[in-house]
Task: structure prediction
Amino acid sequence: MLSLQNLVLKFDGESILENINLNFKPGEVTVITGHSGTGKSSLLKVINGIIPEYDCGDVKGDVLYKDKSLLGMSILERSKFISTVFQNPKTQFYCINSTDELAFQLENRCIERNLILDKIHYYSDVLDSKDLLDKNIFELSGGEKQLIAITASGISENEIILLDEPSSSLDYESIKNLKRAIIELKKRNKIIILVEHRLFYLKDIVDKLCVIENKTFKEYTKEYFSDDFFERVSEKHNLRNFNEIFKSDFLNRQYEKVDMLQKNTPSNFANRSITCLHFKKTYDKNTIFDFSVSFNNGINFIIGQNGVGKSTFINLLMGTMKGKGEVFYKGEKLKKRYENIFAVMQDVNYQLFTESVWQELGTVTKQDDLKNEALRKVHLFNKKEMHPSSLSGGEKQRLLLAMSMVSQKPIIVFDEPTSGLCKMQMDILIGFLNQMVEQGKTIIIITHDFEFIKQCDGAIYEFTK
Amino acid sequence: MTIKLDFRTKLFMTIVLSYVMVLGNIQVKYFLQALIISVIPIVLLINTKHTRVAIIGMATLVFVYGADRFLMKLEYSPLVAILLILVMVVKKILPAFLMGKYTILTSNVGESIYSLKKMKCPDEIAIPLTVMVRFFYAARIDYSQIKKAMRLRGLTLKKLIKSPILLFEYRLVPLLMCLSKTADDLTVSAMTKGLAVNQKRTSISESRIGGIDCIFFVIMVWAIYLYIRGKYA
Result:
């Protein structure tokens, strides 16, 4: 059993978590949720030792595992029984080849080659990641990467498995695989601790739900779980929905299925604001897509499975990738597409270039009053002298939103804007999107997040093949 | 059939090719042999299906050797001399560059640490070396993302060419931010997976010097022989 006793966590003298008492039993799935910045991820870091060994932080109280205190142990010592699946699939791997990555931890433990191969064989079979063996990890999709990370934690046969927002950039199919993998690990009597905003896939596997609020935990054990429990809890703490949302829930909205391999030009393009004509992209002689599509003013959601070609389509639309096709905006052909399109990509860290929030806005407009107004709108006015990289993820995204508002560009593209956002931040985002629609902008959003689509009005385009 | 070379062979070949081809005068004295040696990394690249790199490498090779022949026939002029020097530099560096590329593309982290350890290379050198390879891989991805993001913000080369410092800053600031984060994340991921200095470790890749390695060793010895003969005989 893993237990936290009177745990207090402080950053720079300011406490983030106070007097946490919690027990985690083998074979139980504990879900920790709460608003962004409440210290959920930090708690995982205290357990696996990253705080205080790598990140600064002041830990008081105790973390006990099998009646031994973990606080005196290094990350390395703890790695013998704790595995962590991190939020960002890009950098959580040490190797480039997937089989190598799966073997890496056991190689470090000096386990014999054949035994390692047996374990890889066994766990990739159980966790359904057999097809992913011996591939370049960077060429896998987000869901596949996350599955490799989970398989690696299974192979390590560690008793404690920590997962930090594993679903944040996954589509529904991948989330199903993730859920299946968690169930398999649960069967093997692991202590599983998940930090998560998206809760719908966890409803029937969670044994204990913890909500962080006001620096402390509200703990709900299985005995509480009645029929309407999840709805009450999500309302009370303003959490995201526990109920799965299906495509069929959107039938009363404008819903178009777009076949990405169908060359025909539909006739209803005439009155629409953006038309992408004869978009074609091939890769290694395979046609990724060859189709035409058009969007109305307002919000347009693009959904579809991972790997269907949504991102490639968006890149071609923005002109950041070579390929065939023409873009028309209100009947006029766009020559320099990037002059008309503002993009908020998934990893906002790449998109901020200057030394302060104020200068960042200065790259879009020179008018000070516009800048001030936009900053007030996104609640960043008091942070205008700060360095963009010192902002939190949600704040960085809001800064980009402010830039898209002051820019004169009529088209705004978002790639997975809700990944890593809590309910509150999602609601704020939706508010801004509606403001932009009022400004007359056309918004195109790639997303896997059906809850977000449900909360936000707009047309839905399902890309299929 | 895919040729599987041991990491040590690849490392040896990279070192020999860079030394012999860059510092020697094989290209002048033994035209055919130099061409054969230059083609080796390309053959290896094709063999491991890195066709794109191989084609670019081959095209460059044919071009520089062709250009060399052509320029030699022309009458002397400063321009021809400059072009000749350029062609010569590419001719010398290309094989080493392609071989290095091959080594990076086909080696994996576990295998290279294991091989280096077998060569009695201390952990303090072996681990940073492999981290470096991994880090460059991440850096390349980061850099292309940043270039893309800048383009979308209208911060194009054309606009910023007049203020190179700004261009430098816009590219470098986010890159450094991303890289320092990448470095942190990589360290953490290695630590939480139990990588440590001076511990015994195994490897799933069979690190053995086989027959095929010996053949390439012999070829490299031949290259060294040509180098010595070309220089001193």
About this structure: Chain B has two domains: 7-108+206-232, 120-191.
